[in-house]
Amino acid sequence: MTRDELRRKLQQARAALSETSRRQAADAVAQRVAQRVTGQQGVAAIFLSFANELDTTPSIDALWQQGIRTVLPVLHPFAKGHLLFLNYQPDTPLLNNRYGIREPRLDCRQVVPLAAINWLFMPLVGFDQQGNRLGMGGGYYDRTLAQWRRGALPRLQPIGLAYDQQRVEAIPTAAWDVPINEVITPSRHWQFT
To answer: Does the keyword field hold Nucleotide-binding (predicted)?
Structure first.
């Protein structure tokens, strides 16, 4: 199965989940996210859900309750295919980017460097037991993780957030793919070495 075929299959499985299942999954993941950061301080980058992704609203609330500063990804206005991360609070004004994903209005004073981020909670379409992840195909997170892969961001801890149904036996990989060490699903906190 090609990456595109697998992506379509997993997106269809995600879209088929009932509203009740989605809510329960989002709440269960939020509890695991809270456990992951309990007793720690730092900055968490997290995404706002889009197109049947796991709802991150409960996880964002859990981070705020833990006193964790949160930032959201924003499409970089000058470096195509790259992300910036901006501070996010309950009253932060949001806009739809060119993909229809909500993000903070670009304000250079609110940019947080990747080196200052402790946890990078990422969306994914699929993942496997080796920590390989399948995203939407734009490569934004692979580019973001390139420095981490080289060891240049020692404090950064990339963590995927997904439904249990998004785990597969094996993800076909490409040279630019960056595997991650952790994925949180409703039923489990997966850790890969």
So the answer is: yes
Whole-model pTM: value is: 0.94
Q: Which sign does the torsion angle of CA 175, 178, 180, 184 carry?
A: negative
| Residue 192: closest CA among 183, 181, 176 | 181
CATH number at residue 58: 3.40.50.10420
Annotated binding site for substrate: 48, 53
Please list, in sequence order, all residues whose beta carbon lies within 8 angstroms of the beta carbon of residue 154, skipping any fewer than 6 positions away.
Answer: none
Distance (Å, whole) CA 166 – CA 150: 27
Q: Bridge partners of 159?
A: 121, 182
**Residue-by-residue DSSP string for 57-101:** HHHHHHHHHTT-EEEEEEE-SSSTT-EEEEEE-TT--EEE-TTS-
Residue ranges making up the domain that contains 61: 3-191
Residue ranges of the binding site: 3-7, 48, 53, 133-141
Residues comprising the binding site for ATP?
Answer: 3-7, 133-141
Q: How many domains does the chain have?
A: 1
* pLDDT tens digits, 32-88: 999 999 999 999 999 999 989 999 999 999 999 999 999 999 999 888 889 999 999
Going by C-alpha positions, the residue among 114, 112, 134 that lies closest to residue 124 is 134
